[in-house]
Design brief:
By secondary structure, this protein is α+β, with helices and mostly antiparallel strands. It contains ten helices and ten strands. Helix content is 38%, strand content 14%. The strands form three sheets. Strands 1-2-3-5-4 form a five-stranded antiparallel sheet, sandwiched between helices. Strands 6-8-9 form a three-stranded antiparallel sheet, covered by helices on one side. Strands 7-10 form a two-stranded antiparallel ribbon. The model has no long low-confidence stretch (mean pLDDT 94).
Length: 298
């Protein structure tokens, strides 16, 4: 997939959303439209009145997510212990906006960040229980990991060249020898069990907190079926040692799957870090994530 296909367009704003709603769903034309901040990368999200939200893909690469979520979220929801997005309506291209878009029921909560949760370990266990149930859902006719979800749940080998190139460019900034070991261990194993549903993008922005606890999981655009290792990345991007142990203890996954999980987390951190200048690299969160991965590997 080319970088052009992933480049966000500039015309998505509250005025456009208001006009799309007015022309395609006039029964909601009187409702206020406000941007939801912080805004995501794959989609732009707006609050519609008090009870709905509108999500529009920001680039061509993310358009397939619309149909996938409308088809599969209602299938997944009854089997999960936490709320997930509920599609209400699907809009069509219009007014200069070139892709389909979605209206969802509004989900309460704020994206997780420091200070919002009562207990990180309890949060980790709740998320693990959500993943256990997600990974058990029937996968009949479900979308196999591939280009449509950037291979989340697929083979790490897709990103082998990109990862090795980033390691070369980061020599002297991080312990590239140890990082290469993490990567090669991850590359040396495969998922040999039946395909499982994966969320594909368990980042802090996709986990909503309410009353100090994990309340809802959003943004299933990267979901598919395959290897659940990609769903472990949050163990290093959010959790400290104790909560990472709680998370791991609650998931029935073997050491090899955790090794691939470290690989997924390392790839993402490396490609983020390599885009920064030298002064930023030392203090960026991606560097901290890499240090956690290396310590965990040891």
């Amino acid at each position: 997939m080319s970088s052009t296909e992933k480049q966000p367009i500039d015309l998505i704003d509250a005025s456009l959303v208001q006009r799309l709603i007015a022309t395609q769903y006039p029964q909601w034309a009187h409702l206020t439209v406000e941007p939801v901040l912080p805004s995501g990368w794959d989609n732009r999200t707006f609050r519609l009145g008090d009870r709905m939200s509108v999500r529009l893909p920001s680039a061509a690469a993310y358009v397939a997510q619309v149909e996938k979520e409308h088809k599969w979220l209602p299938v997944l929801a009854p089997h999960l212990p936490l709320p997930i997005p509920v599609p209400i309506a699907k809009g069509v291209p219009a007014l200069g906006y070139p892709w389909p878009w979605s209206v969802y029921a509004w989900l309460d909560g704020e994206p997780v960040q420091e200070g919002l949760i009562d207990s990180e370990e309890a949060f980790a266990r709740t998320l693990a229980r959500f993943l256990v149930d997600l990974h058990r859902i029937d996968v009949t006719d479900a979308p196999i990991a591939g280009l449509h979800n950037f291979y989340r749940g697929g083979s790490l080998s897709v990103y082998d060249g990109e990862t090795r190139n980033a390691l070369e460019l980061l020599a002297g900034c991080i312990d590239t020898a140890s990082a290469l070991t993490v990567w090669e261990v991850a590359m040396g194993s495969t998922w040999n069990n039946p395909n499982a549903w994966v969320h594909g993008d368990l980042a802090c922005g996709n986990l909503l907190v309410k009353d100090g606890k994990l309340h809802a999981v959003i943004d299933f655009g990267s979901s598919a079926v395959g290897d659940p290792a990609c769903d472990l990345v949050i163990a290093w991007t959010m959790f400290g040692e104790a909560s990472r142990h709680a998370f791991r203890s609650a998931l029935p996954l073997d050491d090899a799957t955790w090794a691939r999980g470290r690989g997924w987390a390392l790839w993402k951190a490396l490609i983020t870090l390599v885009k920064l200048d030298e002064s930023q690299r030392k203090v960026d969160k991606s560097n901290q994530v890499i240090q956690r991965i290396l310590a965990d590997q040891r």
